[in-house]
Prior knowledge:
single chain, alpha+beta
Amino acid sequence: MNNENNDIKILKLDQGTVDGYLEYLKEAMRLEPDMMMAESVDEAGIRARVKDPFYMNTKNILAMAKGKVIGRLEYHFYGCMQDGYRMAYVDWVYVLPAYRHSGVAQKLFLELEKDCRENRINQYYLIRSTKPEADRFYHSFENANLSECPLLRKELTS
């Protein structure tokens, strides 16, 4: 797969790429259900969210090889009013197992960083996996800080 790295294209998730994205999600769910944040693929919900203005500030970039989605990175920008600091939060990154260790995730992060620079983002961050494979990947980042930080999470119900 390493020789095919140049054949990887990065596209945005939109109405034109949603079918490939759904196929990718189904395959990811079949291969590693414990890694997914949902128990099933909500096709109708995803198709609706791709058009919903609320989700337009959440960016999804897809890694494509031979017309197939093989990886995804989701992120959004936000800023601090007080000091004007501009940040990006990476919500999700996942590459199908057969395509790992071939530069796919690196290519997704390069595209993220390009978008961050274009939007004058000061830093991006994510809550990273500490599984050995992911940990090795994140330790390969140059000029990055890896920390163990406390997290508050509160579910809000309607």
